[in-house]
Design a protein that fits this description.
seven-stranded mixed sheet, about 30% helix, alpha/beta, Dihydrodipicolinate Reductase, domain 2, 8 helices, six-stranded mixed sheet, about 350 residues, 2 domains, about 25% strand, binds NADP nicotinamide-adenine-dinucleotide phosphate
């Protein structure tokens, strides 16, 4: 194609799919043709891109003819079924489900951390979990400087991380409870409004959830270091947008909070807001809609000689999802020279 690419969005009507549309437009990615794909339920719906309406089509085996990039944002079972069909039709697949993340033949990429991994792709590139992405963006510079030995993380994850229906559920439950009506529970295992759920994904090995193991295994793969010891507790909180994390990082060499602040201030895609005396630190409300990972509360761990505590916040729908996918596509298209 002379003036751009044929881009397909699989899951275009979802929380991430809609964000992909606005980021493609904002960043002026050269889209020559756009295919918006979703389930049969959404076929015929129209979505706006760059001031023009595009019809949503049902995803079928024939959806990928002459597609250059297929951005998949659907369940892992749909990605597993249709990802290989898209690559066989000649498309490069960028998939944000967990379907291919741990496949040794599939690169798992955060554009600021391991863009080199893209060189090894065979048609499918995996996009990490929305809690792993901001974490590795912070860990990477610290690991290069002082070698990270161990991480203990607790997350505070927004409902948009569970998709469009989960956002509706928080909205409806909040309205119902304020009107003294009962809250209906459909998406989450319990009421999420005015509550916190220490339960994201299914419980598994050693009593940890799938989400918690994803953070550990994906961190190892992206930083290319399985020796980092790590455990996580992932918690859903009644926030619409942005995941926050409280992270304890033990390093091999001692590193001071001042050095951490300096390293993170120059790290790509990272912004430090750390003036606690002025009540300045990152929060979901101020980070929503922003592209960078925001860090604050950087301080020594008084219980350990070589450990740092910090707080991070990132927009899960942007850097945690759609933005990183578009950035991967930008890197690939720059290599292509088109
Ligand atoms: N939300 C995040 O922050 C985030 C971050 C990183 C990764 N992810 C991953 O991204 C994926 C999508 O997440 P989301 O939050 O955008 O979910 P979502 O809001 O629930 O959207 C799901 C999308 O999948 C489509 N879909 C459902 N069944 C389908 C079918 N049979 N055929 C074709 N399309 C179908 C839906 O289309 P209909 O409208 O027609 O049902 C919708 O467009 C998940 O794998 C999730 O783990 C999400």
């Amino acid at each position: 194609m002379e003036h751009g690419y044929h881009v397909a969005i699989v899951g275009a009507t979802g929380a991430v799919g809609l964000e992909l549309l606005s980021i493609l437009e904002e960043r002026k990615f050269p889209v020559a043709q756009l295919s918006l794909l979703a389930s049969k339920r959404s076929a015929g719906r129209r979505l706006v891109f760059a001031g023009e309406e595009f019809p949503v089509q049902e995803l079928t085996e024939g959806s990928f003819q002459r597609v250059h990039f297929a951005l998949f944002s659907v369940s892992s079972s749909i990605s597993k079924a249709f990802g290989p069909i898209a690559t066989r039709a000649g498309a490069v697949v960028i998939d944000d489900s967990s379907a291919f993340r741990m496949d040794p033949d599939v690169p798992l990429v955060v554009t600021e951390v391991n863009p080199h991994a893209l060189r090894r792709h065979h048609g499918i590139i995996a996009h990490p979990n929305c809690s792993t992405i901001p974490l590795v963006m912070v860990l990477n510079p610290l690991h290069r400087r002082a070698r990270v030995k161990r991480i203990v993380a607790a997350t505070y994850q927004s409902v948009s991380g569970a998709g469009a229906r989960a956002m509706e559920e928080l909205d409806q439950q909040t309205r119902a409870l304020i009107a003294s009506e009962p809250a209906e529970v459909r998406v989450f295992p319990h009421q999420i409004a005015f509550n916190c759920l220490p339960h994201i994904d299914a419980f598994g090995e050693m009593g940890y959830t799938g989400e918690e193991w994803k953070m550990v295994r994906e961190t190892h793969k992206i930083l290319e270091d399985d020796s980092i010891r790590m455990s996580a507790t992932t918690v859903r909180v009644p926030v619409f947008r942005c995941h926050s994390e409280a992270v304890n990082i033990e390093t091999e060499q001692k590193i001071t909070p001042h050095e951490v602040r300096q390293l993170l201030t120059t790290a790509p895609g990272v912004v430090v807001i750390d003036e606690p005396e002025k009540s300045q630190y990152p929060m979901p409300l101020t980070v929503a809609g922003r592209d960078e990972v925001f860090i604050g509360r950087i301080r020594e761990d008084p219980s350990h000689d070589r450990a740092i505590n910090l707080w991070l916040v990132a927009d899960n729908l942007r850097k945690g999802a759609a933005l990183n996918m578009v950035q991967i596509m930008e890197l690939l298209s720059a290599e292509n020279g088109r």
